[in-house]
Design brief:
The protein has helices at 14-31, 35-42, 53-56, 60-71, 77-94, 101-110, 123-133, 145-148, 156-164, 177-186, 214-230; strands at residues 2-5, 114-119, 141-144, 170-174, 190-194, 209-211. A six-stranded parallel β-sheet has the order 3-2-1-4-5-6, with helices on both faces. By secondary structure, the protein is α/β, with parallel strands linked by helices. The radius of gyration is 18 Å and the shape is elongated. The protein binds magnesium ion. Magnesium ion is lined by residues 6, 8-10, 174-176.
Length: 231
């Protein structure tokens, strides 16, 4: 039994921490009189980077850098460094595990599952999150797009997990349909979408189950696992 789990907005509150960081960041920009940047964020213009593959392998400070350069092509290195270190510090202060994350991870381990974390973004940033959240020991493997060079917009990292841990009983758990669920489907997983975070109200196409939290996801896995054992 193989369980593939996503990190951001599935195990931890990345979008919420990001939003709180953004609010702080707006005050920071205001103090710096960067009004064009404030308008850019308030208008949600960063959304155009959502489907940009290269952005999926970046971390938050690099994304801020991409966006700030988009708004101010001539911004100085010094100013960028000040902004990105401010963003990183604030973000990690707000980043927390969801209360159902540990019960879920220990629950699937108790069922005898091999647990693989598949996550987009850079190595440094994702490894730092895992360390800060204290969840290293729950995973048999961690696959990060920044390390493989493939984001979850393609199937590569899901195929890789299956090659490393062959199984005919696979579950994929995540918050995003067009990456976590679609990737899970590509290797024959039962896909469980957790409705929270940034992608909460998006259209669902690839999920077998839609649940409100990881307690429900664990129940789905338990009952599917039991059904298999009985047949
Ligand atoms: Mg996610």
């Amino acid at each position: 039994m193989l369980v593939l789990v996503d990190l951001d907005d599935t195990l931890c509150n990345t979008w919420e921490a990001g939003k709180r960081t953004l609010v702080r960041f707006l005050f920071f920009l205001f103090r710096k009189r960067k009004f064009r940047a404030i308008l850019y964020f308030l208008a949600g213009r960063y959304k155009r980077f959502e489907r940009a593959k290269h952005v999926h392998v970046l971390d938050l400070d690099s994304i801020v850098e991409v966006v700030m350069r988009d708004i101010y092509p001539n911004i100085s290195e010094e100013e960028l460094r000040e902004i990105t270190s401010n963003v990183e510090e604030t973000f990690f202060k707000f980043l927390k595990l969801y209360p159902d994350a540990i019960p879920f991870l220990s629950g699937v381990r108790k069922l005898g599952a091999t647990v693989v974390l598949i996550t987009d973004s850079s190595t440094e940033w994702q490894r730092k999150k895992i360390r800060v959240l204290g969840i290293e020991d729950y995973f048999d493997d961690v696959i990060i797009s920044g390390e493989t060079g493939h984001s979850k917009l393609d199937d590569y990292n899901f195929q890789l997990a299956l090659r490393r841990f062959p199984s005919d009983e696979i579950y994929a758990v995540g918050d995003r349909d067009d990456t976590d669920m679609r990737g899970g489907k590509s290797i024959g997983a039962i896909t469980i979408l957790v409705r929270r975070g940034y992608f909460k109200s998006r259209k669902v196409e690839f999920a077998d189950y839609v649940v409100k939290d990881l307690f429900e996801a664990l129940e789905v896995i338990r009952s599917e696992h039991k059904k298999r054992a009985e047949t």
